Amino acid sequence: MSERMILVLDEGTTSTRAILYTADGVRGAMAQRELTQYYPQPGWVEHDPKEIWERTLTCAREMVAHAGSADRIAAIGITNQRETVVAWDRRTGEPLSRAIVWQDRRTADRCDALRAEGHEALIQSRTGLVVDPYFSATKMRWLIENVPEIAAARDGLALGTVESWLVWKLTGGRHITDASNASRTQLMALDGAGWDAELCALFDVPQQALPAIVDNIGDFGITIPDLLGGAIPIKGLAGDQQAATIGQGCLDPGSVKATLGTGAFILASTGSSLPVSSHRLLATVLCQVNGVRHYALEGAIFVAGSLIQWLRDRLGLIAAAADTDAIARSVSDNGGVVLLPALSGLGAPYWQPAVTGSIHGLTHGTGRAHIVRAALESMAHQVHDLAAAFAADEAPWHHLRIDGGMSANDWIAQDLADMLRLPVERPADVETTARGAAMLASVGAGFYPTLAAAAAKQSPLMSFVPTLPDGVRERRLAAWQQVVADVVTSRGLAGSAAL
Ligand code: ADP
Q1: Cβ atoms 213, 161 nearer than 8 A
Q2: N vs C: which end of the chain shows fewer Cβ within 10 Å?
Q3: Is 257 exposed, middle or buried (0-12, 13-18, 19+ CB in 10 A)?
Q4: Are 301 and 261 in contact (CB under 8 A)?
């Protein structure tokens, strides 16, 4: 038994991957395929559900072949880009349109209307989410209203997030979603077992099209034998950020992780107590095991690594993301430059979609390295503001675990420790999202009795401790806060100046 492996399907925004894990939680081989990004109009982002399925299947087949055969795989764990909506026909199993991706802003007007009609307080208190096009409900409604095939499907319509779509295809028709993904739709109350009838009516989404809400660990069906050369049970499901939190072992209340990828997502476990934010953070389901929910408070930063890509691809200031570490070290400070990285608006805690990015403090003395350094510094500045919002919500951080592509940058890791005045820890294996899905499936497969037992196999941590003199830190924060106050507070966001 112990020689059998776990197969993780990690379906992300830019690529889909299949990864093998041993029963001991050691990461093995990986197959990966890019996903086509469709931008049919400004603010619109779409994926092809057929491509998601076919490329996921291709990767899974490669990994089953690598393992030897399907019976070498004890269980599958799935983790996925959250909020993205797929619509398909129950009778044919074929998609009825492209998927609307989480970044898509096409329902901004609908969200404005919901706010103007006074629904935000109810939505926020019941779901823990702010009213924003980011979440699934308004995307589902848009599909029903605007795609004739979807309206025509009637009882044959199936709606779901990406893990639902993959489970349907893998099992040949099981329609489920796990509680962590369901908590991002705006159609489930944080403490409600099923879909919320009042929210479904408010967003005008037919409940019969939605999947059944299930635990994050369980028996979620077996794969159609022809697909992978044998029937493999699906035992774990979770949205990517919840999976990363589990993969970092941040299970106990107060433990917090930051995934620094294209965007940055910070989740602090609150255990079994329902988080309530009065500082525009999100409350979300971390996981549901044996019907018992654990929760997390979440802050989403929309621009993190994508700023480094912008420096490389648009400005041509750097040749490769990894060069930024040495460039930042080549100057003693930012030379007075402050960069507001609002390339796609500002997420938590500001929620200002219309704010644009800007670079402040330029002089004849400003060089490339100052701008690169200011860009890297903006990561810690944004995370600092989130830390203040978490503390104001009575969820202070005592340390921070980081992962994601940007966390490989030692300069950023040290800067986070300095600006947060907290120890920052980075696991040797930063693939925490897949690791979390592997842990869920491992518990489901009986390799471990609990997630805590699976988390004990955590890879070694590297620690960064604060060393920056307080005066330097205070001056940097003051300059950043001045920029935020000028740009954000002038647009009428109450409270941001206090952050
Ligand atoms: P995602 O899962 O969101 O696709 P990843 O976790 O793979 O993202 O991280 C990729 C991002 O990290 C890219 O935007 C890239 O610019 C950034 N990145 C990768 N390596 C570094 C580095 N050494 N320093 C700074 N940023 C980096």
Answers
A1: no
A2: N
A3: buried
A4: no
Kindly give the distance from the C-alpha atom of residue 375 to the centroid of ligand 1, in angstroms, as a whole number: 14
Three-state secondary structure along 377-439? Answer: HHHHHHHHHHHHHHHHCCCCCCCEEEECHHHHCHHHHHHHHHHHCCCEEEECCCCHHHHHHHH
Substitution site in 262, 403, 411 for ligand 1 pocket (most atoms within 8 Å of beta carbon): 262
Specify if 187 maps to a domain: yes
Residue 305 CA, ligand 1 centroid: distance in Å: 5
CA 179–ligand 1 middle distance (angstroms) = 28
Bridge partners of residue 85, in order along the sequence: 100
CB 401 within 8 A of CB 315: no
Please state the domain count of the chain. Answer: 1
Alpha-carbon distance of 424 to 411, in angstroms, equals: 12
Q: Is residue 382 part of a domain?
A: no
Q: Would 66 be classed as within a structural domain?
A: yes
Query: Which pLDDT belongs to residue 48?
Result: 98
Q: Which of 35, 406, 433 to mutate to test the pocket of ligand 1 (most atoms within 8 A of CB)?
A: 406
Range of the domain at 170: 5-240
Q: How sure is the predictor about 496, in pLDDT bands with cuts at 50, 70 and 90?
A: very low
| C-alpha angle 478-482-486 in degrees, rounded to nearest 5 | 170
First to last CA, the chain: 52
Compute the distance between CA of residue 292 and CA of residue 286 in angstroms, rounded to an integer.
11
Q: Which amino acid is it at 298?
A: E
Q: In the structure, which protein residues have their CB atom closer than 6 angstroms to any atom of ligand 1?
A: 12, 14, 261-262, 305-306, 308-309, 321-322, 324, 404-406, 408-409
Whether residue 265 lies inside any domain: the answer is no
Q: Is the pLDDT of residue 495 over 80?
A: no
Residue 324, exposed/middle/buried by CB under 10 A (0-12, 13-18, 19+)?
buried
| CA distances, 131 to each of 121, 138, 203, 280, 342 (Å) | 9, 10, 11, 11, 19
Mention every residue, 6+ apart, whose C-beta is less than 8 A from residue 189.
126, 127, 196, 199
Question: Model-level pTM greater than 0.85?
Answer: yes
d(CA 13, ligand 1 centre) in Å = 13
DSSP label at residue 43: T
Q: What is the CATH number of the domain that holds 29?
A: 3.30.420.40
The mean of the pLDDT values for the chain is 93
pLDDT digits (tens, 9 = 90+) for 243-272: 999 999 988 888 999 999 888 999 999 999
